[in-house]
Specification:
449 residues, mainly alpha, 18 helices
Length: 449
């Protein structure tokens, strides 16, 4: 390779790490704020019935937002990058049509969930009393407006990522936890658990406004515009459906986890929610930042057919992530009980709750290194246009997770739900890596012509 090519490759790798560091730092700040929000919530509500009601009410809207719109962002970024790389003048049109598509879908889902809530919520809170279910139902309806708001935010975030505005696209995530803490401090005693619902919607609206400002500064229109099933839209959906199915399976496992916890008695849903927070922070910091940064780079290298450079970039990013995440995970597992006492215990959160949460946290931390590699592998699959592999590996992981949810709580209580989730992630990662190797061996070794 010529010196100029080597220099360019190193420059791009440096930029990817800089982007990953930027996203990682901002994600860390966001997750620290989110962790602080959980600590404050624990002080005010402990593992109470009211908090159980909110968490179950929040579960389905969160599930739909993370699967439908979160996956849409990931699918749209490579399509926008290819359009920009080819000097296509239709980038703005693609963004507007994408917004129209996902906004229509989320609005329809909002209506569907509202109509079926009385049937769905008792399934998720099977041990809830009638008064607790009534509170869950009203909280649930109040948060459904989040769905169409998230459609706009997801599309605009994809545009910002495609333009390299990763910092802004990530920073807006801080809105919800910061607003929640402010609302808890000012209104928890007066409004009770309703303060969490109001704060969540306020954070979503602030994120919506911030992303809209960023989009306008890039010269894009905020107005959705559907021009029919163009080749770009067909290509986007061909990439999106398998990725959505795979993500739905993954998020569905979390949904099953919460439903199983809801059947284990009072406070179990809250204990599971607290217990998985630290693992979630590590995965977001170590995996989400790296995965967000590498997707544009992987997409560019695939489109250019530069397999050696792609293989080198893959090894480098996974190696760096593991060098950091494995020691941190082991250290946190070793001190899990102390971490729970320091973070949560106090106020309404007593020593008994701390012991339960500590066990859940220890099991959930098992998944962290595997989940980080899984995120990078999923982005690689997306860049390759092989989202179907995510679906196949995810289906096997779902079977493992659901089986674990059925068996493990018999021995470990709600901690068994955390262990089942960890086993599901391990199987998911191993299966996806194996399928990637079978599909494209050049990702892992040099293949002679």
């Amino acid at each position: 390779m010529a010196f100029g090519g080597i220099s360019e490759q190193r420059s791009r790798q440096k930029r990817v790490f800089q982007d990953a560091a930027t996203v990682g730092i901002l994600t860390s700040i966001t997750k620290i704020a989110a962790a602080a929000k959980v600590v404050v919530t624990a002080r005010y509500f402990g593992a109470s019935d009211d908090l159980d009601a909110f968490l179950i009410a929040f579960l389905l809207p969160q599930f739909v937002v993370e699967t439908v719109t979160g996956t849409f962002t990931t699918s749209l970024v490579p399509r926008l990058i290819r359009s920009r790389s080819s000097q296509d003048q239709q980038v703005g049109t693609i963004a507007q049509a994408s917004l129209a598509l996902v906004l229509g879908a989320m609005s329809a889902l909002m209506v569907l969930l509202a109509l079926t809530a009385r049937w769905l919520l008792p399934l998720l809170g099977s041990s809830f009393s009638s008064s607790k279910l009534d509170l869950t139902f009203v909280l649930f309806l109040s948060m459904l407006i989040w769905l169409p708001i998230s459609a706009c935010s997801a599309t605009w975030r994809a545009v910002l990522n495609a333009h390299g505005r990763l910092a802004m696209a990530t920073a807006v995530y801080m809105a919800s936890p910061v607003i929640t803490m402010l609302f808890l401090a000012g209104g928890a005693a007066r409004w009770g658990v309703w303060v969490l619902a109001v704060a969540n919607m306020s954070g979503a609206l602030l994120e919506f406004v911030a992303l809209a400002v960023g989009i306008r500064r890039l010269g894009y229109s905020l107005r959705p515009s559907w021009l029919g099933w163009t080749p770009d839209m067909r290509a986007l959906l061909a990439q999106y459906w398998p990725l959505l199915a795979g993500t739905t399976i993954t998020a569905g496992c979390a949904l099953v986890d919460q439903a199983v916890a809801g059947a284990l008695g009072s406070g179990s849903v809250a204990a599971l929610s607290y217990g998985v927070k630290v693992a979630g922070v590590l995965i977001a910091v170590g995996g989400t930042g790296m995965a967000t940064a590498v997707l544009p780079e992987f997409s560019r290298l695939v489109s250019q057919g530069r397999w050696d450079a792609l293989r080198h970039a893959l090894r480098l990013h996974v190696g760096v992530a593991m060098a950091v995440m494995i020691p941190v995970t082991v250290l946190l597992m070793w001190g899990s009980a102390q971490v729970v006492r320091v973070i949560y215990q106090g106020g309404q959160f007593d020593a008994t709750a701390a012991a339960v949460v500590s066990q859940v946290q220890w099991f959930s931390l098992l998944m962290v290194p595997f989940a980080v590699v899984l995120l990078i592998a999923q982005r690689l699959s997306t860049a390759l246009g092989a989202s179907g592999l995510i679906l196949r590996a995810g289906f096997v992981a779902m079977l493992v997770n659901v089986t674990g949810d059925w068996l493990l709580p018999r021995w470990f209580g709600v901690g068994g739900v955390g262990l089942a989730s960890a086993l599901g992630h391990i199987v998911f990662m191993a299966g996806l890596v194996a399928l990637l190797y079978l599909k494209e061996p050049r990702l892992f070794r040099t293949v002679k012509p």
